[in-house]
Amino acid sequence: MARKEITTTVKAGRKHKKVDQKKEVDVKPFVSVLTPVYNGGKFLRECIESVLAQDYENWEYVLVNNHSTDNSLEIMREYASRDDRIRVHNNKEFLPQMQNLNHAFSQISSKSKYCKVVHADDWMFPECLTKMVDVAEEYPSVGVVSSYRLDEKRVGLNGLPYHKTFNTGNEIARDHFLNESYYFGSPSSLLIRSELIRKRDKVYVESHQGTDTGACLEFLKESDFGFIHQVLTFTRRHEESVSNTDCKENYTWIHAKLYNNLHHAPHFLSDEEQQKVLADDVNRYYIILARTLFQTKSTEEFNRLKQILDDLNLEFRYRLFAKNFIREVFLQFIKGCGLELKRVSNK
After folding, report:
1. In 3D, which of 266, 252, 262 has the Cα closest to residue 315?
2. Residues 107 and 203 sit within 8 Å (Cβ to Cβ)
3. Contact, 115 vs 30, CB < 8 A?
């Protein structure tokens, strides 16, 4: 860790005695805090204030404006005028979400050792940077640091045995695939070693949304994982958020899981393990597909969801779809009978 010398002035009775005293002071690693913003004015001040409230001081704060049409840019410029650690980057043109996130990563300082994303509707507790950097500094092989998060009113993410702050990337990835343990959360939950970001043209796959987990799995192929047993970040759930609109509507989670099973699981799992995990998620996908067709009666919606298989180069399995469609019809019939019996019994 770097050191610097300072000259201090000390009091001696009524006089001030200047003493050339070599005092060692830790120079903390430089952190790029990053917030991509598109129409985030409603919660942006709270987000920015949480960065300013950090008890860690050696950071820059990059606010990336993706052609917001609300007052986001005005808020960003207001704070940048007050603190020279804050800089605003205006995109030349509007970018789709995943492209914008990748573009935002390219704006972090070449001098930063770590990158801390905090989305515009989220925020950090004051000790977040200090705690996360401390773990990353203690274990130089750690590329991703996470912690518990406050998910609106409840504490979220899977935990680890209390004594463990260091975990190999392999064991975390295997636990994620085999036991569906979820340690990563949203990007706001993580600290990432900047060199892992800089060595990649793109951090996120842009073919679909929800690829933040895939990015973590990619990082863990060459680094390890740190975890802090404290709540250090806040994730907001609201009706306008992407996770509550596009991601749910497009079944992003199952698309991302299938992609991760095909592209990342083989690195961490045996062939037998990977095939079993993939089969389980493929079956989930066909349940969703059958349920969607049964409930919407829309061939357009069916074809849109079926396109996910085409994008992943997975052959459509007619027998598996038929089995799950019949299952869905049967379940809805049973559910309908149950409701009818309930009405009769209440008369």
Report:
1. 262
2. no
3. no
Helices of type H across the chain: 41-52, 72-82, 97-105, 128-138, 169-179, 194-198, 212-220, 246-249, 252-263, 265-268, 271-296, 299-311, 318-346
| Helix H or strand E segment including 25 | strand 15-26
**Entry pTM:** 0.83
How far lies 63's CA from each of 38, 76, 231, 319, in Å?
10, 7, 24, 50
Q: What is the 3-state secondary structure (H, E, C) of 112-181?
A: CCEEEECCCCCEECCCHHHHHHHHHHHCCCEEEEEEEEEECCEEECCCCCCCCCEECHHHHHHHHHHHCC
Q: Which residue has the tokens 């919606």?
A: 301
Annotation: CATH topology of 31-237: Spore Coat Polysaccharide Biosynthesis Protein SpsA; Chain A (3.90.550)
Q: What is the DSSP string of 50-73?
A: HHHT-S---EEEEEEE---SSSHH
Q: Exposed (0-12), middle (13-18) or buried (19+): which is 138, by Cβ within 10 Å?
A: exposed
Domain boundaries, the chain: 31-237, 247-346
> Other CB atoms closer than 10 Å to residue 115's CB: what's the count?
25
Q: Distance (Å, rounded) from C-alpha 148 to C-alpha 214? A: 19
Distance CA 46, CA 273 (A): 44
Percentage, residues of the chain above pLDDT 70: 86
> Exposure string (b/e) for 271-288, b if CB count within 10 Å is 16 or more?
eeebeebbeebbeebbbb
User: Can you tell me the mean pLDDT for 176-190?
Assistant: 92
Q: Which amino acid is at 39?
A: N
Q: What is the pLDDT of residues 17-63, one digit of tens each?
A: 333 444 445 689 999 999 999 999 999 999 999 999 999 999 999 99
